[in-house]
Structure formats: structure tokens, C-alpha cells
Design goal:
single chain; 269 residues; 5-stranded antiparallel beta sheet
């Protein structure tokens, strides 16, 4: 029998952040494909559109008119998934039909006044403004809520409903399932080894030089060993940093160059 080749033979890979195994079947890449192939989208997007609710001076669905902003613009989501001060569910009728309180707030951050730009097309100085705003938002909402999730869906295929460059912020009174598991596994790793899991992982990836996408003095962008999606990366700071607002000047400047390229994606901080 031939010796095992991870690029040819099926196997499972362990995801230490989620404490779960991922099936890897590289040989299936050789199968013929007759399924759907997405066409390239050549969007002819104008610099501004008075009918776009995210543009400067645009009217949102609730009738509010946006200011003529020239940089970033933050506002409360008009269609939030989470609200404060809503009725809480009562006691469950049975343990198989449980529900729990969920409160919070949702915000939208426009990166730039122009409709036809993206993070990848913005200047480094403009990107730095966005990074600083992320840090400011995370610090503010993090002082009042258990969890703050900053994320961007880019492209219609990823579920983005508006081409204007923007992200969403969800702050919740509870810790969601995935962050809760990652918090648990990293705590357990630290208690067992005395080391920070992702810093150990970072050093091993630097040593292997197999999955690194880009690296600078403060950051490493790598395809995770346990990647689940066809295109998946993780960006790790080279210093132990708890929150984005804890990044120093050098690290914030270094993060600017790690802006994802202009294609459909989901980015989560």
C-alpha cells in the first residue's frame, strides 16, 4: 500500500478552536464538474445614487435622510436582528422547548461616501480611519454588551443587499455559540500549556511556510490547517492582543495592508 499523502488521500483534520474534526478529501478535486459556474459580474456602479439609502443625502426606508458625510458614517440598523427593551420569554413548558432572552443592538458603518469604491480600492489612510472606527465601536459596545460582532458581507452572492461599501455590527446580551466554544478551547489550552493557542499556531505556520498568504512585521494571514471553506483565511496578530482597540499604532498600520481583495467574501472580526 502506498504511503499516506495529505494532498492525495482522505483524512480528518482537527480544529482546536472548535474542538471538532474536519473531513478532507483532496482526491475529489479530480472529479468532472457539470454543476453551476457563476459568471463574472461587471457592475457599472456610479459614484453616487440619490436613491441608494446608504449614500450621503440618501433617504433610508424609515424616512431618515443621511447627512452629507465625507468619511465614515455610523447609524443604527433600520432592520435590526436585535433590539433592547423587548419582552422576555417566560418559563419553558418543557426542556425540549426552551428559549432564552436575547437583546442587543445592530449598527451599520459606511466606509466611504462613494458608492463605487470598496475597502480594496480605498487609500491606506482611508482604511486606517475604518480600523480606528472599528476599535472605537468595539470599545463602546463592548462596555455594555457581552459580545460585539463586526462583519462585512461583500458581493450579492454572499448575501449583501447593497453595493455601497459598509459593514454591520451586532452587539448582543449573550455570547453566541461559536465565540463561546473558541473562548472555552483557548482557555483550556492556556491552562494546560501556559501558552496562547493562536500564537503557538502562528509560530508553527511561520516555521512550516506551507499555508501563508501574506505576512508583515505585525500580522500573519494564513489558510488554516483545519480550513472548512474552499477559500478561507485567518489573520493573526504576532502579539497577544485581546481586542481590536488594544492594537498599537504599528499594528493598526500593519493591518491596513491586509485588506481583502475585491471579490465576494465574508469578513468577521
Amino acid at each position: 500500500m502506498a504511503s499516506f499523502d495529505p494532498s492525495e488521500h482522505q483524512h480528518r483534520r482537527y480544529n482546536p478552536l472548535m474542538d471538532e474534526w474536519v473531513l478532507v478529501s483532496p482526491h475529489r478535486m479530480k472529479r468532472p464538474w457539470k454543476g453551476q459556474v457563476e459568471k463574472s459580474v461587471n457592475e457599472d456602479i456610479p459614484p453616487s445614487d440619490p436613491n441608494n439609502p446608504l449614500c450621503p443625502g440618501g433617504t433610508r426606508p424609515n424616512g431618515v435622510i443621511n447627512p452629507n458625510y465625507e468619511g465614515t458614517f455610523l447609524f443604527t440598523n433600520d432592520f435590526p436582528a436585535l433590539l433592547d427593551d423587548t419582552p422576555e420569554p417566560g418559563e419553558a413548558e418543557h426542556q425540549l422547548f426552551r428559549c432564552a432572552p436575547a437583546s442587543g443592538t445592530c449598527q451599520v458603518l459606511c466606509f466611504h461616501p462613494r458608492l463605487d469604491t470598496t475597502l480594496a480600492l480605498m487609500t491606506l489612510a482611508e482604511i486606517r480611519v475604518v480600523i480606528d472606527k472599528w476599535a472605537e465601536i468595539n470599545s463602546d459596545l463592548g462596555s455594555r454588551y457581552s459580545w460585539v460582532q463586526i462583519f462585512e458581507n461583500r458581493g450579492a452572492i454572499m448575501g449583501c443587499s447593497n453595493p455601497h461599501p459598509h459593514c454591520q455590527i451586532w452587539a448582543s446580551s449573550f455570547l453566541p455559540n461559536i465565540p463561546s466554544m473558541k473562548d472555552k478551547t483557548q482557555r483550556e489550552y492556556f491552562l494546560k500549556t501556559g501558552n496562547v493557542m493562536l500564537l503557538d499556531y502562528l509560530q508553527m505556520e511561520i516555521k512550516k511556510q506551507e499555508r501563508i498568504v501574506v505576512e508583515n512585521g505585525s500580522w500573519l494571514c494564513v489558510v488554516p490547517y483545519w480550513a472548512l471553506w474552499p477559500f478561507e483565511t485567518i489573520v493573526i496578530p504576532k502579539r497577544h492582543v485581546l481586542r481590536i482597540e488594544d492594537l498599537n499604532e504599528t499594528e493598526r498600520n500593519g493591518l491596513q495592508s491586509f485588506v481583502i481583495r475585491d471579490h465576494p467574501y465574508i469578513t468577521s472580526l
